[in-house]
TrEMBL record:
Species of provenance: Paracoccus tegillarcae
InterPro entries in UniProt: Trp/Indoleamine_2_3_dOase-like, Trp_2-3-dOase_bac, Trp_2_3_dOase
Binding partners and assembly: Homotetramer.
PANTHER family, per database record: TRYPTOPHAN 2,3-DIOXYGENASE (PTHR10138)
Family annotation (Pfam families): Trp_dioxygenase (PF03301)
The protein, known as: Tryptophan 2,3-dioxygenase
Top-level taxonomic group: Bacteria
GO process terms (BP): L-tryptophan catabolic process to acetyl-CoA; L-tryptophan catabolic process to kynurenine
Positions annotated to bind heme: 237
Swiss-Prot/TrEMBL keywords: Dioxygenase, Heme, Iron, Metal-binding, Oxidoreductase, Tryptophan catabolism
Task performed by this protein: Heme-dependent dioxygenase that catalyzes the oxidative cleavage of the L-tryptophan (L-Trp) pyrrole ring and converts L-tryptophan to N-formyl-L-kynurenine. Catalyzes the oxidative cleavage of the indole moiety.
Similarity comment: Belongs to the tryptophan 2,3-dioxygenase family.
Amino acid sequence: MNDNEPKPYDPATEGARMSFQGRMAYGDYLGLGDLLNAQHPLSDAHDEMLFIIQHQTSELWMKLALHEMAAARRAIAEGDLQPAFKMLSRVARIMEQLNDAWDVLRTMTPSEYTQFRDILGESSGFQSHQYRMIEFVAGNRNMAMIGPHEHRPDHARALRDEVAKPSLYDTVLARLAAEGFDVPARDRLDVAHQPDAAARAAWLAVYRDPARYWELYELAEKLVDFEDYFRRWRFNHVTTVERIIGFKRGSGGTSGVAYLRKMLEVVLFPDLWELRTEL
Ligand code: HEM
């Protein structure tokens, strides 16, 4: 190199640490050793890596969603609604992030998927305990859905423990009661929320006078937002599935697209959707 040639930029000149002997570096803090060594394709198919990483990243985002939902539920129970709003907004954004992620998976064609589908055996997102936990926390509880988790007693126990607690929506209903609305607690916590006349009447009062009940109004809209993004996730999933496997049965054993279409009918917070008709 002659003296006139520009020297390569060295970030050390600006104080960047360039050696991490005996220090905690980025990968140590983030546990990247485990994370980046957790992809184990079982075939030689090029697209299997995409399939694995797409599921793993989704599970990571679900982990964060559960973390936020649990904290939001605690905050709501304590009447501390402002921090809960922020957390619920974050959960909706996570759902949106997962919605965008389908664009990557959509680049995989049926021909590519069939190259490795058989090696998945019967494994399927149907057995995602975190997904089921998100539903259970929100309030869509169905004990039958614990079945595919019985082989993992820790996961099955966590789901059973969850249905013994008030759901996120139960906690919101308790908030309505604490604010003076006549909304009784549910007799059974281990079933999905059904439309409830007392709750709908309370929400109607809130939506008819937002200025008076601003915090409850905002809380309701945060839940609707969450459900709105969640519905989009389900829709994107079923469309992607149809595009990739058509009407074949799912690896988890369901009818596939027909099952997922049925799941599009799930309503997490029926009172909040029904009240709109009456306004
Ligand atoms: C090639 C891509 C995919 C295909 C063909 C596919 C297919 C299916 C099918 C057919 C089902 C119904 C259950 C069964 O019988 O297996 C299902 C359920 C499910 N999948 Fe996927 N899926 C794909 C990607 C994903 C991704 C990336 C995720 C993200 C985690 C995911 C999460 C889920 C979840 C959570 C369920 C359970 C839904 C419920 O029970 O309501 N799937 N999938």
